[in-house]
Design brief:
- The chain has 159 residues and is α+β, with helices and mostly antiparallel strands.
- It has a single domain, classed as Molybdopterin cofactor biosynthesis C (MoaC) domain (Alpha-Beta Plaits).
- It is built from 4 helices and 5 strands, in the order E-H-H-H-E-E-H-E-E.
- It has a 5-stranded antiparallel sheet, with helices on one face.
- Helix 2 packs antiparallel against helix 4.
- The longest helix is centred in the last third of the chain and has 19 residues.
- It is elongated.
Amino acid sequence: MTGEFSHLDADGRARMVDVTTKSVSLRIARVRVEVLLNPETMRLLVQKALPKGEVLGTARVAGILAAKRTAELIPLCHPLPLDFADITFEIDEAGGRVLIEAESRTSAKTGVEMEALVAAQIAAATIYDMCKAVQKDIRITDCRLVHKSGGKSGTFQAD
């Protein structure tokens, strides 16, 4: 660590990091997040009987759209040409959990972690929005990067 902040110029002003000299490489990021539901809400979700309609399809599209708009939401984030963005779900009925995984890929000079983070969180928020008519105390929890590859820092894989 050089003691310098990558997002501050010499005068302490926020700036976008200059990636001009970085090499283009395939970059992949995966983020996981959990949405915790009570048994009745989970039953309605599984039966596709929630009042606002089909939850997971809506959440998938919302997450993908969010990944594509990340640079509009995070001020110093580079706009990236996404080669791939997707959201997958695993339903744990017994545990009352919807496990969400967002994946983003690009061939670019900087990583796609922010795109995967935003995608996962917006998918989770969409599930909340679609379920809030029947449950107000839904919890969104444990959002974290679980995989990243590409670039000079190499591969990161969470335990």
